[in-house]
Amino acid sequence: MKHELDLLDRRIIVCLQQDGRRTFASLAAELHVAESTVRTRVSKLTGSSILRFFADVDPYVLGLTYAHVMIRVRGTHLRHAAKALAAIPEILYVGMCTGSYDIVTDVVCRDNQHLLSLIQDDIRPIPGIEYLETFITLDILKDAYGYEAVLLGPESG
Questions:
Q1: How close are the terminal C-alpha atoms of the chain, in Å?
Q2: Could you tell me the pTM of the whole model?
Q3: Which of 14, 62, 134, 143 is the most exposed place for a label (fewest CB within 10 A)?
Q4: Can you give the residue range of the structural domain that contains 97?
């Protein structure tokens, strides 16, 4: 479901993506609106799941293995397989996609042995999984969550 956002909503989102710990008072001052307006807008954005707050952790600093597992699913098992994958704690992201694969996942594991066990013991046995390919990320060159170019760019309204 697509939600229509006005310019103030988009500006609040961009500000919070830059620093999610900002106070409503500082946002209000920057955006030239009342603090209560910011509080109400943030409440609506979080209530409708447009805006979420969480602590982002760098897996490499912790010495963890981060990988993308691309999965091809047989027949009509796509939704069942995606739901089963989403229930696995080490899998951080599950998306049904177009292209050569049906599902893309991001996983984090303690090490390569843990990744091997996850693939062999938890992922491969899921009914309908036909083929998978694993890509271990060796280095991250960009890890951005900001949508400023899209939300506030020239075509944003």
A1: 19
A2: 0.79
A3: 143
A4: 65-136
